[in-house]
Every structure is written in structure tokens, then in C-alpha cells.
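Notes from the pairing session

We agreed to fold both candidates in a single pass and log them together. This is the raw record for the first candidate, unedited. Please don't reformat it; downstream parsing expects exactly this layout.

Candidate A
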Amino acid sequence: MAWLSGQIKQGVDRSWHLVEESSSLPPQLRFRFVLILFHPTRSTVGCGMNRQKMGGEDLNLMENEGVCRGREGKGRRLWKKVKFQLVEYHSLPGFLRDNEYILGHYRSEWPLKQVLFSIFTIHNETLNVWTHLIGFFIFLSLTIYTAMKIPKAVDLNSLQHFPDILMKADLHKLQSELLTCLPSMPDLHRLREEISSWHVKEYLYNCLPLRFSSSNHTDVSVLHSVKEDLANIIAPLMIRPITRWPFFAFLGGAMFCLLASSICHLLSCHSERMAYIMLRLDYAGIAALISTSFYPPVYYSFMCYPFFCNLYLGFITVLGIATILVSLLPVFQNPEFRTIRASLFFGMGLSGAGPILHKLYLFWGQPEVFHTTGYEILMGALYGIGALVYATRIPERWMPGKFDIAGHSHQLFHILVVAGAYVHYRAGLVYLRWRDLQGC
């Protein structure tokens, strides 16, 4: 039995020697060799057979059991270490094969714990995760800022034309209308008392700059500061903010899209089932972003035209739901459908040209209309370039393997999506200011 123990030890030493000699093999062949040599189930077969042969009759049983356990433990440690190494494209299971121009640095079927911690390691999905995760926190901050700070100012420039309006108005008609409506106003005396209790003089004095209140000069910069401060004080009294739900719907859609995309790129390598779920979540996020991006321009452009407002909002909502349902089909994820996926989402965005042209027709000549349309054209260009880069897999198709870690098409696509969404946020601020000041 001592002879058998020596044979086992020699076998272990020979296995490690083979591992050292395998360093001259190509990386992928060496990886497969080590997996076969030290897989835990293989490493313990000999020990199990020896246990059966020994049957507890030899005095060296404990020594042989120790050798078996040592061999098994060493094999398991090496197996665990090798299993969590990054692999190359041709070693991937079919469900993880998507871009043949990215040759290496793949995570393949890792346990969930290692997958979660890989957010802090370098692989070919690291920047895909972080570009949209950072974008999510950017839009979360913008949402909080919008809820707390907007609107802030009132447009005092519009008052400069007030004398001209009075000169052109029919004063006799205006007088008769005022006399008609005044008796119907409730409790004018109580209203006057409430206004007098507002302490307007104290408010105005407190908002004046110190250097202006302590001197009598009329410096232009001081007067400009006074104008801004007065505007901020008076704004809550003069502005009745229009409803914000379309704008916050867009911000919610953007955050959902960015967070879903980040989670998808982090977790999809865990298993085929996880990849299926995460990719559907990712597609739903893209459809949600495109659909909710329509809500601010459509609602604020056509709020005075309920028929068109409901028509456009209903159309894009139904289209978004239909896109999500189509994305549930397993065939939708196949690599050969990459161009179809990009075309479908691009077509959703392109359908926004109808409401934009309609808006220009109705409100031609208003500065806000041209301002928002400029933002929307820029947003469409960013999304369109992103879809083109995604579908053509530029630049990695020109130099396969050179952009595995940084600079490949999906990362560029992510950056362009965040930029396009931010441009749309800026357009939304213009819509809010326009409708807050003018209403219908």
C-alpha cells in the first residue's frame, strides 16, 4: 500500500509538471488543458477507486486519504481560479456570442457573486456598465433639480410692450367688460386687506443688493441685479406652472433605460436564463426612453389642441408597447437581427418628425418653437449616429481585438444616448418656460 501511496504522489507531481510545461501552448489550448486536468470530478476519481480497493484493510489508509484530500483540494482551488478567468470569443456559449470583432476579455457563466463584484474589475463590459450607470445618476440629479428649482424666473421683458397694447386696445370696450366683471368678484375689501398684509415693501427692500440700499447711485449692474432679484421674488405670484407630468415621465423613462442597460451588461454573463431576462429588460428600457421622449414636446405643443395631443400621445404609447412585445421573441436577440433591432428603434424615433412639423406649422414665428426644434434635430442626430454605430460595429470591425476594453461601438452608442437624452432635457426646459408664461 506504500507503493500505491507513492504512485498517487507521483501522479499529482506529474500533473503539476504538465501544467508548467503547458505554458508554451497557445492560451486557449492551455486553458482547456488545465480545465480537463484539474476539474474536481476528474481529480477525485483515482482516490475514490483507491478507497474501494483498500477497503479499510491497510494500515496506511489514513495517509492515502490525506493524499486524496490534498489532491482534491488543490484541484478545486485551481479549478475555481481558472473558471473565473476572462475567456476569448470562440470559447463562449452561443447565448453570449454577439460581436465577433471583440475577441477577448469575456466573462462566461460566472456565479452571481463574482458577476456582481466584476463591476469593479476590467473586462469588455466594464465601460458599457459605467457609461449608463453614470448617466442614470446624472438624470437622477436632474430630476431632483427640476422638482426643486424650476420655475425660478419670470419674463419681465414682455412688459415693455404693455403701453403699446393699451394704445391699440378698445378702451371703451375694456371699460364695459371691467364694469361687468367687477361686481362678480367676491369680497374686494378682504382681498385688499390680504394684499396689504403681504408686506411687499419689506420683501422688495430685502431683495435689494446691500450696496444699492446704502447709496443712491444708479449703477447699471446694480439695476440689473435688482431686476433679477425682483423677478425671483415676484415669480411665485405671477407664474402658475403648467403641469409637469409629461416632463417627469420623460425623466423617468430616461432613468429606467439607463439603469436597465447598466444592469443588463453587468448580469447577462451569469447564465442563459439571466441573459434572456436582462436583454428583454434592456429592450423595454430603450422603448420606454423613446416613447416618453415624445411626451414633453407633444403635450406642451398641443395642449391647446386636445385631439392632436391625445392622438400623438396614444400613437407613440401603443408603438412603444408593441416594440416591447416584439422584443420578447427569442429570435429578436439573434446577432443576424442586429440591423433589424437598430432599424426598429430608429423608426420609433423617426416617427417624431410628424408632431414636430405640425408644431412648426401651428406656431411658426415663435422663438420657443424654433429653439425647441433645434434641440430636437440635434437629439435626433445623436440618436441616429448612435444607432448607425451600433448596427455597423464601427470601429472594432476595422481592427478586431483592438477595442475589446475601450472604444468599441456599444460604448460609443451608450455615450451618444446619454448625450441625446440630455439635449432633450434642455428642450424640455424651454417647453416649460414657454407654457408657464403663455399658457394656451
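Candidate B (folded immediately after A)
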Amino acid sequence: MGGQATDADADAEYDDWYTWGKAVLYLEMAIAILVTVFSLYLAFNGQAGFLAH
């Protein structure tokens, strides 16, 4: 209601570093998810190094 800033208003208050910071953060989150999925794939296929023995 009154006085609350929307996401567009919040983004307008920051410089370019904020937009790039959010992009880098989302990229890092995607990389972490991919590493997790790859690790689980290796574990369930018996290729997880010493854990697979």
C-alpha cells in the first residue's frame, strides 16, 4: 500500500554494480546447482571415488 517500494523502484535506487551483482549471484547459484546434480549423478552411478568401493 502506501510507502512501499516495488522491485522496479528498488532497482532504480542502485547503480550498475547492483544489477551486475545480482547477475553474478544468480550465475553462482546455477553453478552450485549444476555441481550438486553432477555429484549426485556420479554417486548414483558408482563413480564417486572412494565412496563407490
